[in-house]
Fold:
Amino acid sequence: MIMETHGDICRLGYLRIIPCLLEDGEPKAFDFLGTLLFEIVKNAEDEDFLIEKPIGLITRPVNARNYVTLAAELDLIDRRSQTLGNFGKLYLCMSSSARFRRLVEGVEPLKLIDLLMLNDAEKLFFLWALFARDYPFIQLIASWAIKRGKFRRQEAMIYAMEEAYPQSLKKILPRSRYDEVEEAEKLRERRLTIGDKLEWIKSSQYAKYRHIAPPRFEWLVDVGILKRSGRGKYELNQQMIYDPQRVLKLASLTPAKIEQYLFNDFLKPLSRLYRRASRHDVFKALIEVYGSMARYFGEEVDLRRMECMTVLALIERGLIAELNEIHDSFNSFALQFPDKIYVSPGPGGRSSLAYIDIRNLEI
Structure:
């Protein structure tokens, strides 16, 4: 679960820049990363937002620093080494990262709308990262939002902080930190003792609510599940690329089961938007994804994650294939090229590692 958030870290799109700043492999202090991020985005043109700018824009170095913290919470950055985290390495394997590399290098400026808007593959990538790293808080919030359909931010904050937040802490914290759960369970009682609305808005408890809950609803906007329907109002995004019932199913799963569902049944509604990938398409994407992952993870890469990233790589090309299809294709290719493709048990037997000798491998 993401434990450190700020009320201004609402736009996931900014996070795509941060792995590109760490691609050289050199550790970078979070304050330094925040300064770099601010300098890169501060002059972005914003004429595309004709009516109302989104909330969560980076306008000061402190805003940028808060986004760096979020990147660490999502494992885009490894906190200990201050280098790329696992999800940061995975993002750099996506084709869309190329334009943010060019932005970081000063080759190609981007408009504000380009910094904020996610394509379909990126929406799935961040949905994956959020549901894996913010479990079970974001799942509870997503389920509640879908079942409600329409709601105001105030009632959403109350649900998130007084129901979902205590439940989440109880699920993830060890017994040695149970006092934090008890404190969270008292939030409703304390709010009800504040009778005056103005006093409530000025209270430290309201500030806590504002820093923890609203960003998560905005993240669900960015990944396409919700949309804003007015000031402080949200509703289910009727144009979302997903099926709401499948989002509810996804939200009911533990992190260990997310990938299997997210990249299989969850994707079925996308088949109406994308052309079915051929075996040649899958093989080509697998080889290219392996080559990218090997640069960041070493020659032996996690097989499941390579297959998940292949799903995203195909979507970026306007194609669709589900995880099971890609896994079957990989097994077929391994039989076809036994001297080029190897699979071995991962550490502790938790996952399989794949090695592909891509030299002289004909696609």
Summary: Strands lie at 77-78, 83-84, 150-152, 226-230, 233-236, 275-276, 301-302, 319-320, 341-345, 352-356. The longest strand covers residues 226-230. The mean pLDDT is 93.
